[in-house]
Design a protein that fits this description.
The chain is of the alpha/beta class and about 500 residues long. About 40% of the residues lie in helices and about 10% in strands. It has 19 helices and 14 strands. The strands form three sheets. Strands 2-3-4-5-6-7 form a six-stranded parallel β-sheet, sandwiched between helices. A six-stranded mixed β-sheet has the order 9-14-13-12-10-11, sandwiched between helices. The protein has a two-stranded parallel ribbon with strand order 1-8. Helix 5 runs parallel beside helix 6 and helix 15 packs across helix 19. The longest helix is centred in the middle third of the chain and has 21 residues. It is globular and about 75 Å long.
Amino acid sequence: MTTSTTGTDTLTRDALAVLQPGFAGTTAPDWVRRRLSEGLASVALFGRNVATAEQVTALTAQLRAERDDLLVAIDEESGDVTRLEVRTGSSFPGNHALGAVDDTALTRGVARELGRRLAECGVNFNWAPSADVNANPDNPVIGVRSFGRDTDLVARHTAAYVEGLQSTGVAACTKHFPGHGDTSVDSHHAVPHIDLDATTLNERELQPFRAAIAAGTRAVMSAHIRVPVLDPDRPATLSRRILTGLLRGELGYQGLIVTDGMEMRAISGTYGLEHGVVLAIAAGADAICVGGGLCDEDTVQGLKDALVAAVRSGELPEERLADAAARVRALADWTAGMRCSPASEGDREPEIGLTAARRAVTVTRTGPAAPVTGPVYVATFHPAANIAVGDETPWGVGAELERLLPGTTTGSFTGSFTGPDAGARALEAAAGRRVVAVVRDEHRHPWMRTALDTLLAAGPDTVVVEMGVPQSAPRGALHVATHGAARVCGTAAAEAVVAG
């Protein structure tokens, strides 16, 4: 077996190359820097690694001092799922807002501007866009992360997003193959099942991925979902029929296949983390995402050892691991080459995110009501956040309304409520003031519907702002739908409330 100049054998280097671990802290840990010299080719950044854009730039520079061709990945969908702006909320609306506007040039421009910001921070691999068709409005994990429920719309915006992002030298990662939109279970917690017939799967779920492949997406992320019509036994991430047979064979995709987070319970709770990683590489995955929770050196050591042991025992063909590692390095080479020819700086659009958010707003007036001109009470009804979105990113319209409404510095109040008595508590806290009720996916939360019933019965002039999927019928004197909860969506919603 050959040995590299660093003294690490080829098998070990390949095993490290397929891992995309996260880590703790806002500077590069010693163990990560050491592993980079031994063959680790990728790292992943999460919200815990981000303080400011300048700090991320310094962090990625520190990492590249150890390995210049490093892949630095991030889960920056924008909209509700943001890591780069985890403390403030995103400067860009998410997919659902872009789908609501349905202007592919706008989607391409938003993705391009996002890509530039990532590239400036030294990030060259983005786990986005979501190409899932939101066929099930009760989906607990996709929702506004999808461009919508129309297949053709999702397909054309997925392609536009890939083109815009990759024009900046940041690799796109289209997800979650073969489509997570018709699930009712969050794969962070268990294995979702999608019981579709072959025709529906082909004509609905797969079409956006075909569009992404045609647009040149450099990576595709697998979903931890079981699709019995494709494989009755294993979820897509661990299925050779799905990753190698369908994605590589039938769809002709030749780029990088990366897994969704392997620590998610759909995999780790069913197969075990280390065994799951071996099964994923054997099935056709090339890169292993791990560390959304908290990845440390012992985890990386254990996964590397498991892959090496699987090759030596014959469970994992050595050539399959070598092929996976080669695809990781090929993507790193592409990003390095693109650094020399980024998208033109002449058409920068720093305000495109707010422009897009404003265009996405839908305002419905259900009856005559006085304009919102004075102090109000902003009642935000908080559902439990799914893990992909997280609960650390602020959202809502309170701060923006305080800025826009005269006299609100001392006269307006805000509060957050959840649970079966949320409406009554909000009404009491409002103390007679006009209420702006802010909801997120009202249709999925019976307690939230009841809260609005209470507020509207007491105050027909209540304004309702829906910052999730606007599946429920508009109600309230004024109903504002933002199609997402990014910071810019909150700004656009507040402007719409004041404008009436």
